[in-house]
Design brief:
It contains 10 helices and 12 strands. With about 325 residues, the chain is an alpha/beta fold. The chain binds adenosine-5'-triphosphate.
């Protein structure tokens, strides 16, 4: 696959930038009575540079997938802004939205669900090329072959007549990655790309994504609930809690010197050396994640935080405070 030439972006401008991004879902009773909203994404600030790999890590229900879907243009933000190559996503319509989708490859959690069961591999990969007007047919075939080789499914001729049910989970996810690459995107958004795969193939798929990201200088946003998978595959980590980013840092800094008590608790849970706990799903950390329909006042983590300071953490919302090079934590302990 030859890399797409870099778009002329304003100097110093990140490829992707979100500022105070919000995606709230309205709750309705009997389909019409508005009874409130779920603040799935509630004031997210993030940036991603061209060629950079970052992970968004957080527990189930913290808003990771809603953030991913908003960044893909699948949910319209209800507040704030996200820009890709300087263009506000909310204003993209029609052809501009189609062009944006070609520039962002999407790898989702369930590869089997992502691939239409009635399409063989070749059709599944050819369809985005046809939709985006890539012609002639020989060029499409060349690209399909190159994409399959890129993801380790070679020779392509042995795979492209197969249907999803004839492939293993790992092979299916490789096809999904090939499809995400086929339009030569500038960014890959991978939402829990290995959580439904056998443990034996998870590392292979993460290594593949990292290699492709590096070789083609793609940006990668890797969404995961599993902090143990970020070290070798990303440059930077953003920790999400209650619809917000509570800490972000270069990967080594986050794993060695977490500054937010939530990130600290996630790490402590990882480091549990007791083999009896290795297979046990534990709430991380203890206590319930906040309701995003009625989040607690002040810091959203304060009801679970062992260091919460009454009169501060339960009243005032902490801003992202600089705690090191490229490292911020939204915690009053760091003020
Ligand atoms: N389309 C929707 N309509 C209403 N509520 C939604 C919608 N999508 C997500 N939510 C709610 O938003 C909150 C965040 O969900 P989201 O799926 O983004 O979290 P997540 O961190 O990705 O969790 P998981 O890993 O379990 O998918 C949840 O309370 C969820 O029920």
């Amino acid at each position: 696959m030859s890399p797409r030439p870099a778009q002329a972006a304003a100097p110093g401008e990140p490829l992707l930038a979100a500022r105070d991004l919000q995606t709230h879902f309205e709750l309705r009773r009997w389909g019409f009575l508005r009874t409130g909203s779920v603040r799935a994404v509630d004031g997210v600030d993030l940036t991603l540079d061209a060629g950079e790999a970052a992970a968004v890590v957080g527990e189930s229900g913290c808003g990771k997938s809603s953030l991913a879907r908003t960044l893909l243009g699948l949910h319209r933000p209800t507040g704030g802004e996200a820009r890709f190559e300087g263009q506000p996503l909310a204003r993209l319509r029609g052809a501009a939205l189609k062009a944006y989708r070609a520039r962002v490859g999407y790898v989702q959690q369930d590869p089997y669900g992502a691939l239409p069961p009635f399409m063989d591999v070749r059709r599944a990969l050819e369809e985005p090329l046809i939709v985006h007007g890539v012609a002639p047919r020989a060029e499409r075939e060349r690209r399909i072959e190159a994409a399959l080789e890129e993801v380790g499914l070679a020779p392509a001729g042995e795979v492209w007549g197969k249907y999803p049910h004839q492939l293993s989970g790992g092979q299916q996810q490789r096809v999904v990655i090939a499809r995400a690459l086929i339009l030569r995107p500038r960014m890959i958004l991978a939402d829990e790309p290995v959580s439904m795969l056998d443990a034996s193939v998870r590392v292979e798929i993460l290594e593949l994504l990292r290699r492709i990201q590096r070789e083609h200088r793609l940006a990668l946003l890797y969404i995961t609930h599993d902090l143990s998978t970020v070290r070798h595959y990303t440059d930077r980590v953003l920790v999400m809690y209650g619809g917000r980013i509570v800490e972000q840092a270069p990967v080594e800094a986050l794993l060695e010197r977490p500054q937010h008590p939530y990130a600290e608790a996630l790490l402590a849970a990882l480091a549990d050396p007791d083999p009896a706990n290795a297979r046990r799903e534990r709430p991380v950390p203890g206590g319930e994640p906040p309701s995003l329909a009625a989040p607690p006042p002040g810091c959203r983590f304060h009801p679970r935080c062992p260091y919460a300071m009454a009169g501060t953490c339960d009243v005032y919302d902490p801003p992202a405070l600089g705690v090191g090079e490229g490292h911020t934590a939204a915690c009053w302990l760091r003020a």
